[in-house]
Design goal:
Three copies of one chain form a homotrimer. By secondary structure, chain A is an alpha+beta fold. Chain A has three helices and seven strands; from the N terminus they run βαββααββββ. Chain A has one domain: Jelly Rolls, CATH 2.60.120. In chain A, the strands form two sheets. A four-stranded antiparallel beta sheet of chain A has the order 5-4-2-7, with helices on one face. At the B-C interface, strand 2, helix 3 and strand 7 of B face strand 3, helix 2 and strand 4 of C.
């Protein structure tokens, strides 16, 4: 999981919207968005371990196996987290709670550049 | 899972909004939305099998059993996927990635007609 | 899970928006939003039991353990449910289905007051 809070906060700041919503959308089926504990990296580590165990590689039930052992688990992990998320903007800033950070969760082994669409509206 | 990408894309096209967001909302507690791999039907099959195994029928822990063995699993499967999703619109089109399709996931055995509310805003 | 449908419906009613969307956002990493069966409390009970079993306390794999045995499970349970949700407004009311209620899911044992940001836009 890669934190993208600062990048999104900067985009919100530049948009100059006082009250509104910021929509984030991942344009992929093997990566997703997670808003979670940003203070302790151990929390993210445990989230990742849980996702890896819950949707493991090489499950004999998988039939979609042509793209490698890490592909089907990545679709499941994306499905049970978030493809899109909407964060309110108050006083020109993301209304995140004290402990919340925005993370791009990469569910495949070989990371390629990922695209997140950001839309801000009053 | 039934693909509804084309239906939603047509609604967006008719709305004539160049830049905005398209909100989808399922008005049910036993069906949900999933944005996932649209190219290979085997991927959806595997997602369905995983959901069926993760929230199986006839779990002895269930107490909400009056509506049949497929009812409580359908609530769990809905809870861990999405009741609502928001997709940005760019250049008048849904900003979906190359491999992404929008699916209505039916989690009960006897499918009745389902309602999805579509809201488009600039 | 605590039902908050009435509170949100009142806010929507006061806002006086005929057609639009209502965005809900939980400002926490150990509580989340769930739109589910509001008629039978047994359904929520079963959802809670499933979440407790799927992300149990005292999993030996957890490394983020300093905040107590109920902390890491609460992050996982939040991650696989929803931090934000968007509900369309039609004819001045939330477009919820017949059986849908909005619930704040508390995933820690000692509940403190929780904050949900509500944003309404036409």
């Amino acid at each position: 999981m890669t934190e993208i809070t600062r990048k999104i906060a900067d985009i919100v700041s530049e948009a100059g919207v006082e009250f509104g919503v910021c929509t984030l959308f991942v344009r992929h089926t093997s990566a997703s968005l997670v808003i979670q504990e940003a203070a302790d990296p151990a929390a993210r580590h445990d989230l990742e371990v849980w996702l890896e165990r819950t949707a493991p590689e090489n499950d004999p039930a998988y039939t979609h196996t042509e793209e490698g052992p890490d592909d089907m688990p990545s679709h499941i992990r994306s499905m049970i987290t978030s493809t899109s998320t909407v964060i309110p903007i108050t006083d020109g800033k993301l209304a995140l709670g004290t402990w919340q950070g925005i993370f791009l969760a990469e569910h495949r082994r070989n990371t390629r550049p990922r695209q997140v669409v950001v839309h801000i509206s009053p």
